[in-house]
């Protein structure tokens, strides 16, 4: 990224000093590896939420996340980047029940790929039943 700055001294209400201009160019760098936000495993799918490097730390636009579980899967998840960089959720599908997968996660930005983050994913048995509990219910009436 290229920045141009102008600096000028102001002396009183009507008098201004000469302007000095200078340029500063930063080099593009790949994103930092993502950090795990959450992981929800089913019997054939896994939903993973990632926290990405903040925009203020690296302004190179993020274009995708890669989940490389070769030879079992290789998924590219497109990212619509913004300065907010909200957590990003990916769903890895078509997995086998009761199986452990080793996977490498990469963040891709305009400068290249991040370093790989290695994770293990374990799917649930095929008879696994998911359920949710609403913890915000008010049980004081019981």
UniProtKB/TrEMBL annotation:
Gene3D superfamilies: Immunoglobulins (2.60.40.10). Residues 30-127 form the Fibronectin type-III domain. InterPro entries: FN3_dom (IPR003961), FN3_sf (IPR036116), Ig-like_fold (IPR013783). Transmembrane segments: none annotated. This is Fibronectin type-III domain-containing protein. It comes from Rhamnusium bicolor.
């Amino acid at each position: 990224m290229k920045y141009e700055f102008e600096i000028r001294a102001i002396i009183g209400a009507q008098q201004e000093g000469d302007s000095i201009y200078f340029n500063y160019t930063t080099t593009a760098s790949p994103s930092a590896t993502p950090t795990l936000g959450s992981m929800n495993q089913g019997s054939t799918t896994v939903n993973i939420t990632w926290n990405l490097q903040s925009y203020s730390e690296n302004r190179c636009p993020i274009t995708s996340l890669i989940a490389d579980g070769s030879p079992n899967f290789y998924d590219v998840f497109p990212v619509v980047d913004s300065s907010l960089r909200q957590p990003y959720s990916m769903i890895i599908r078509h997995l086998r029940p009761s199986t452990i997968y080793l996977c490498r996660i990469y963040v891709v930005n305009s400068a290249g790929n991040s370093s790989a983050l290695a994770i293990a994913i374990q799917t649930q048995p095929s008879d696994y039943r998911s359920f949710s509990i609403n913890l915000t219910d008010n049980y004081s009436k019981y």
